Amino acid sequence: MTGGLDWPGLMRAGMRGLGLRPDQFWALTPAELALMLGVEAGPPAMTRNRLAELAARYPDRPTETSG
Questions:
Q1: Where do the DSSP E strands lie in the chain?
Q2: What's the pLDDT score for residue 1?
Q3: How far apart are CA 22 and CA 1, in angstroms?
Q4: Cα–chain-centroid distance for residue 51?
Q5: Residue ranges of the domains in the chain?
Q6: How far is residue 60 CA from its own chain's centroid?
Q7: Any residues with CB less than 8 A from the CB of 8 and at least 6 apart, and which?
Q8: In sequence order, which residues have a C-beta less than 8 Å from that of residue 1 and are 6 or more positions away?
Q9: Cβ-count burial of 40 within 10 angstroms (0-12 exposed, 13-18 middle, 19+ buried)?
């Protein structure tokens, strides 16, 4: 794969997996193909930097006990 999209993989999924003809496949937008393949749009994956930001913002603290 070079660059952004895995075209051979997408073509296999669309034409073999979904049974699309080439003209149908190429008429789709990437978003339409993703929808047909059941790929849900969602938040991006957690990165190490984002985890570090959250840990700094919400540090673990021992629970204080009274008594």
A1: none
A2: 43
A3: 20
A4: 18
A5: 7-57
A6: 29
A7: 1
A8: 8, 9
A9: exposed
Let me know: does 34 contact 53? Beta carbons within 8 Å.
Answer: no
Q: Which two tokens stand for residue 22?
A: 């080439």
Residue-wise pLDDT for 6-65, tens only, equals 889 999 999 999 999 999 999 999 889 988 998 876 777 889 999 999 999 999 887 676
Contacts of 57 by beta carbon, 8 Å cutoff, 6+ apart: none
For residues 17 and 31, what is the distance between their CA atoms, to the nearest angstrom? 17
* Residue 8 tokens, joined: 């051979």
C-beta of residue 20 within 8 angstroms of C-beta of residue 14: yes
Q: 21: which residues sit within 8 A by CB, 6+ positions away? A: 15
Helices assigned H by DSSP within the chain: 7-11, 22-27, 30-37, 48-57
